[in-house]
């Protein structure tokens, strides 16, 4: 029995020690867990986390408001349109409910009043005459918040006005909102080389125009402005166009029905270069359409290698010339290169530098054999030659009045640079 008690003693003591160890170990883990839990989420960290969450929410709300009300924060809204279109929309919208007594005013950069809306109606008497009958705003604009302006028949002059501003005033005259729109009107540009048969100045618009519509093409630059072609009362009016363009212009049939108001200019000259404007007016003088076209007629150039036997300086015309005309080629130093008159070459009037170097053909083109010229440096031997048609004719719209009747046409020149002017004069001589 003593052995059994001795055997049980150590076992019981061992269990007691084991239980104590387990208790102490569990308590330590609990205390350790509590300590880590307390250190992982202190109060200052919780406060910082809350602040970060609030900041993120604030940024999201602010970003949403910026997107929603972006028209208030954009400095300038840009709109591009081609010259000659029927209308362009200058946008301006708001989601804020506006009072019924507000005043909506559109102005340009010169503070001209483009359109004024107040008391549920348009205030036409406050509008600048340049924009009269050319603007329109939508109905119920205060309820919908759509304050956009429709500008009819935009032109390059509207491009010069460029920045348009929509301003909303309350009854006391205080500004409730303001928005700017920048309008860019693209002008059509046409380039062609002198000597082609014709060139077209394009203008296509909506068809079915009134039968009493007047279409007038003018060249406004360089000044003075001149009538190039006029369509009125259902037909062309050649008596109302400048004589320089007589028999050189043409428009398509049924142009009012099709809306194709393009102008064909035959035998374009360098002096035809300029700014052309087509205006479409109603019988009461109202401005229906308008388009601007920039025409650039380039000088025809001829390049040739030094030492070749000859070079052809081309110049052709479609106009039938009288038999008494005098055809004269000169260089840039006004020396006579070749003279043709009365079915023969006038070698006696020719400068000695060009004696035996030229040969006239059926067409008024010149064949020149390049040769040394001791009077000028080698780098200047490539010349501009000028063709002068001497016949009866009218005056070019660009020329100043002179004693002799004449009309300047552009001649083709080989090499060099610059424009080759020519003159058309009466040179009948004695009978």
Short description:
With 431 residues, the protein is α+β, with helices and mostly antiparallel strands. Helices cover 19% and strands 31% of the residues. The strands form seven sheets. It has a six-stranded mixed β-sheet with strand order 1-9-8-3-4-5. A six-stranded mixed β-sheet has the order 10-18-17-12-13-14, with no helix packed on it.
Question: Characteristics of this structure?
Answer:
6-stranded mixed β-sheet; disordered C terminus; 6 helices; disordered N terminus; Immunoglobulin-like; 3 domains; elongated; alpha+beta; 431 residues; single chain
Task: Summarize the structure in words.
The structure is a single chain. The chain contains six helices and 27 strands. By secondary structure, the protein is an alpha+beta fold. The protein has three domains: 111 residues, Sandwich (Immunoglobulin-like), CATH 2.60.40; 101 residues, Immunoglobulins (Immunoglobulin-like), CATH 2.60.40; 133 residues, Immunoglobulins (Immunoglobulin-like, Sandwich), CATH 2.60.40.10. A hairpin with a 2-residue loop joins strand 21 and strand 22. It is elongated, with a radius of gyration of 43 Å. The N terminus and C terminus are likely disordered.
Could you give the count of β-strands? 27
- What is the CATH topology assignment of the largest domain? Immunoglobulin-like
**Average pLDDT, all residues:** 76
The span between the termini is 174 Å
| Order of strands in the sheet with most strands | 1-9-8-3-4-5
Rg, Cα atoms, Å: 43 Å
Please tell me the CATH architecture of the largest domain by its name: Sandwich
The biggest beta sheet reads: 6 strands, mixed
CATH superfamily of the largest domain: Immunoglobulins
- From the spread of the alpha carbons, the general shape counts as elongated
Percentage of residues assigned to helices: 10-25%
Domain count: the total is: 3
Residue share in β-strands: 25-35%
Poorly predicted ranges (pLDDT <50, ≥5 residues)?
Answer: 1-24, 68-74, 360-369, 371-431
Per DSSP, the total helix count is 6
């Amino acid at each position: 029995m003593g052995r059994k008690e001795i055997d049980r003693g150590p076992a019981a003591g061992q269990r007691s020690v084991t239980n104590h160890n387990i208790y102490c170990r569990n308590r330590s883990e609990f205390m350790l867990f509590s300590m880590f839990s307390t250190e992982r989420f202190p109060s200052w960290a919780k406060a910082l986390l809350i602040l970060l969450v609030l900041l993120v929410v604030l940024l999201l709300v602010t970003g949403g408001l910026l997107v929603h009300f972006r028209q208030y924060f954009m400095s300038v809204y840009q709109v591009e349109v081609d010259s000659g279109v029927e209308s362009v929309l200058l946008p301006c919208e708001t989601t804020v409910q506006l009072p019924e007594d507000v005043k909506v005013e559109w102005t340009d950069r010169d503070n001209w009043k483009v359109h004024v809306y107040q008391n549920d109606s348009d205030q036409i008497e406050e509008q600048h005459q340049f924009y009269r009958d050319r603007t329109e705003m939508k109905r119920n604009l205060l309820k919908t918040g759509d304050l956009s302006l429709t500008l009819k028949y935009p032109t390059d002059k509207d491009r010069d006005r460029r920045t348009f501003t929509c301003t909303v005033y309350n009854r006391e005259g205080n500004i409730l909102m303001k928005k700017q729109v920048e309008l860019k009107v693209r002008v059509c540009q046409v380039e062609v080389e002198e000597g082609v048969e014709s060139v077209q100045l394009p203008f296509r618009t909506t068809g079915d125009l009134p039968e009493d519509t007047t279409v007038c093409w003018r060249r406004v630059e360089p000044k003075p402005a001149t009538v190039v072609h006029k369509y009125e009362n259902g037909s062309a009016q050649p008596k109302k166009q400048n004589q320089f363009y007589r028999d050189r212009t043409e428009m398509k049939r049924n142009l009012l029905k099709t809306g194709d108001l393009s102008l064909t200019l035959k035998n374009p000259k360098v002096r035809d270069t300029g700014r052309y404007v087509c205006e479409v007016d109603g019988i009461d003088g109202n401005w229906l359409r308008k388009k601007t076209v920039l025409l650039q007629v380039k000088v025809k150039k001829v390049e040739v290698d030094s030492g070749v036997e000859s070079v052809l300086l081309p110049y052709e015309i479609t106009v039938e010339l009288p038999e008494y005309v005098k055809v004269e080629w000169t260089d840039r130093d006004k020396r006579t290169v070749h003279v043709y008159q009365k079915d023969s070459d006038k070698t006696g009037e020719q400068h000695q530098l060009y004696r035996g170097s030229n040969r006239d053909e059926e067409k008024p083109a010149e064949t020149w054999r390049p040769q040394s010229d001791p009077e000028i440096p080698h780098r200047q031997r490539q010349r501009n030659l000028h063709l002068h048609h001497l016949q009866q004719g009218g005056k070019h719209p660009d020329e100043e009045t002179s004693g002799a009747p004449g009309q300047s046409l552009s001649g083709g020149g080989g090499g060099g640079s610059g424009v080759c002017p020519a003159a058309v004069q009466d040179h009948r001589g004695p009978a």
